[in-house]
Design goal:
Keywords: Glycosyltransferase, Membrane, Transferase, Transmembrane, Transmembrane helix
Distance between the termini: 82 Å
Number of strands: 12
Helix content: 25-40%
GO molecular function: alpha-1,2-mannosyltransferase activity
Number of helices: 16
Structural class: alpha/beta
Shape: globular
Strand order of the largest sheet: 3-2-1-4-9
CATH superfamily of one domain: Spore Coat Polysaccharide Biosynthesis Protein SpsA, Chain A
Order of helices and strands: HHHEHEHEHHEEHEEHHEEHHHHEEEHH
GO cellular component, one term: Golgi apparatus
CATH class of one domain: Alpha Beta
Strand content: 5-15%
Radius of gyration: 24 Å
Oligomer: single chain
CATH architecture of one domain: Alpha-Beta Complex
InterPro entries: Glyco_trans_15 (IPR002685), Nucleotide-diphossugar_trans (IPR029044)
Pfam families: Glyco_transf_15
Length: 425
């Protein structure tokens, strides 16, 4: 009797061992594109688990220092498949912490203390649809000190670490070469013509800051990738994979979900300044660029197409590169941020279109997004059902006459999704 019981126990132990071996084998292969840890800087400044807050001011956080989150081993990079389609293992696993490495990335938001409840809504959207599984950090920037309420509310919602920085005055003021009387007359004229934000000084500081300085803030120097989030946005679909990692794996440097034509009255000489830059810095213009997206006549004029920058996922090292900084500084010296009302969206878009190769810009069709008044809702019922979307496809802006997304597809030789004709004007 004792011998029989021992034999049964041995069989049970052997069965458990055999199942464990099968499980290990089935979960140790990676069929997707490999990652290069030397290129992506994994493990610096990202939170891979646990919730925390870090109320740093930019002045107290040294450039290049890590926010103190745990790092990811390089070995993990080759052993962590990422589910990109419903056919991939792990697609339906949207609970708990997502497996695999984390990129050196952060969300970033420019906000005022009065924006606390609007940004709280945005954070809840991002966390519920994506970040509760990935726990990436969040950097908040303000030209004034953040108050206790803003910090308390936002840090309670973010699953990663939160960081708070005050923008230095030199990044949120008129540069010394700007003629204040001329700039004032421009604002008065735009106010009379009822041009949106035409009379706003703070809006101009914001556009200049987002164009040339947000990526150089000390807190942002800890990171390689960013995802910009504005107050009161909405995400309509589950995000099953890591967009930061997708960008890194596929060598993308800039991305968007909405594109449209800029107000002509706000940028009358922006393209003239751009052509001057092209003439002065021909070495910065990338071969195989996206001039066809920006111009209908080979660069003689600008068609006003731009990526809507209130959503963007991008590479910070590109923005800190000499080509981009030379472009920004050339525009800044021309004064158009104040003598006209140049927005950061056309500045980022023209820079990406000229300084990057076409294939380095990505359209995230599966990140459904709303920022008043436009909606990106994935084309195709099958896609929306697979992603658990709650957007109305009739609201999709992609294929309307005022959208430039169709032009992006044509410039890049991409096939438009099935059913796009039904969403045109």
């Amino acid at each position: 009797m004792a011998a029989g019981s021992a034999r049964i126990v041995r069989y049970i132990l052997f069965a458990f061992f055999f199942i464990a071996v099968l499980y290990f084998i089935s979960h140790s292969s990676y069929d997707g594109a490999g990652l290069s840890p030397e290129s992506f800087g994994v493990g610096k400044g990202s939170s891979v688990g646990g919730k925390g807050s870090n109320h740093d001011q930019t002045s107290s956080n040294p450039i290049g220092s890590s926010p103190g989150s745990p790092s990811t081993s390089h070995q993990d990079l080759g052993e962590a498949p990422m589910a990109m389609t419903p056919a991939d293992a792990g697609w339906d696993n949207l609970l708990g912490t997502a497996p695999g490495p984390r990129m050196n990335a952060t969300f970033v938001t420019l906000a005022r203390n009065s924006d606390v409840w609007e940004i709280a809504r945005s954070i809840r959207q991002v966390e519920d649809r994506f970040n509760r599984r990935y726990n990436y950090d969040w950097v908040f920037l303000n030209d004034k000190p953040f108050d206790a309420t803003f910090k308390k509310v936002t840090s309670s919602l973010v699953s990663g670490k939160t960081h708070y920085g005050e923008i230095p005055k030199e990044h949120w003021s008129f540069p010394e070469w700007i003629d204040q009387d001329k700039a004032k007359k421009v604002r008065e004229d735009m106010a009379q013509r009822k041009i949106i934000y035409g009379d706003s000084v703070s809006y101009r500081h914001m556009c200049r800051f987002e164009s040339g300085f947000f990526f150089r803030q000390p807190l942002m120097m800890n990171y390689e990738w960013y995802w910009r989030v504005e107050p009161s946005i909405e995400l309509f679909c589950d995000i099953h994979y890591d967009p930061f990692r997708y960008m890194a794996e596929n060598k993308k440097k800039y991305s968007f979900v909405l594109s449209l034509y800029e107000y002509v009255e706000t940028i009358p000489t922006l393209w003239d300044s751009t052509k001057k830059f092209i003439k002065n810095f021909p070495e910065h213009i990338a071969e195989g660029n996206s001039m066809g997206f920006l111009s209908d006549d080979g660069g003689e004029s600008y068609n006003h197409c731009h990526f809507w920058s209130n959503f963007e996922v991008g590479n910070l090292n590109w923005l800190r590169s000499k080509p981009y900084l030379d472009y920004f500084e050339s525009l800044d010296k021309d004064g158009g941020f104040f003598y006209e009302r140049w927005g950061d969206a056309p500045v980022h878009s023209i820079a990406a279109g000229l300084l990057l190769k076409k294939e380095e810009i990505h359209f995230f069709n599966d990140i459904a997004y709303y920022h008043v008044p436009f909606t990106h809702c994935p084309t195709g019922e099958k896609t929306r059902l697979e992603l658990g979307c709650h957007c109305n496809p009739k609201d999709n802006f992609d294929w309307k006459g005022y959208s430039c997304t169709s032009r992006f597809f044509e410039t890049n030789g991409l096939e438009k999704p099935e059913g796009y004709e039904n969403q045109q004007d």
